Amino acid sequence: MPPTPDTAIEVRDLVVDRGKKPVLKGVSTAVAAGTVTGLLGPSGSGKTTFIRAVVGTQKVKSGTVEVLGRPAGSKPLRSRVAYVTQDASIYPDLSVKANVAYFAALYGRGRSEAAAAIERVGMADHADHLAGNLSGGQKTRTSLACALVIEPEVLVLDEPTVGLDPVIREELWDQFRELARQGATLLVSSHVMDEADRCDRLLLLREGRFIADDTPADLRAATGTANLEAAFLHLIRDLERAD
Q: Would you state the pLDDT for residue 166?
């Protein structure tokens, strides 16, 4: 996907090594503003490394990553880009309310913004509960509230639904779609192929390379398959035959 004036994330020829082993092998893409882009692939394919490069916490060997027109991780992006890690980034000895209030204060937001973020993720009834006593899904929601309190233009989520029951997964994806409708750009990683149809565009990553960068509908059409899991397998088999 070529960059446009409405591109929120632009990656060019990104190479990342871990030790002497290449993790990302010259990947390039452009993520349109106001969309949900799914980053899919098996464990070990390089998804978390790619995400860390986008938020500016990953040392890269070569290539460039720009977010909202600026180098990834640069100071002006700190209040515009939010990152929700795979493991909940919250303080277990603080309440939900205190956790969100802390992150709100870091970015100059007040109690009203913190309360709104908690309400937005459906955690108002648990606001006074200690984060350490929450279920996995509730911890994920609290982490999301801590990210949403800054009202980010770009929200990056690393496998936010892993291990969650189907009802919570559905609710979280509804929230992701609503954020995109309101103008935010979301990059969401997953290894669960049935989440792919919820995205506007898909980046399929395998062994450090993108093997697809397309819409779900166009990916199915290009591979002549009925579902995205079959499309992914079709692409892998084509690569294997080419090798």
A: 85
Helix, strand, or coil (residue 13): strand
Q: Which CATH architecture has domain 1-80+153-243?
A: 3-Layer(aba) Sandwich (3.40)
What is the DSSP-derived secondary structure letter of residue 193? G
Side-by-side strand order, sheet with 7-18: 21-32, 7-18, 62-67, 70-71
Query: In which residue are the tokens 């294997």 written?
Result: 240
Coil vs helix vs strand at 213: strand
| Cα–Cα distance, 191 to 172 (Å, whole number) | 16
Q: Provide the pLDDT for residue 243.
A: 62
Q: How far is CA 223 from CA 17, 217, 219, 233, 236, in A?
A: 31, 10, 6, 10, 11
DSSP element (H, E) containing 168:
helix 166-181
Domain boundaries, the chain: 1-80+153-243, 87-151
The conformation of residue 97, written as its DSSP 8-state character, comes to H
Mean pLDDT of 164-187: 89
Order of all β-strands in the sheet with 81-84? 81-84, 154-158, 185-190, 36-40, 201-206, 209-214
| Pairwise CA distance, residues 130 & 97, whole Å | 9
Q: What is the pLDDT of residues 115-139, one digit of tens each?
A: 999 998 889 999 999 999 998 888 9
| Nearest residue to 136 via CA among 102, 193, 198, 90 | 90
Distance CA 208, CA 174 (A): 30
The angle at the Cα of 21, spanning 18 to 22, to the nearest 5 degrees, equals 85
Cβ–Cβ < 8 Å for 138, 130: no
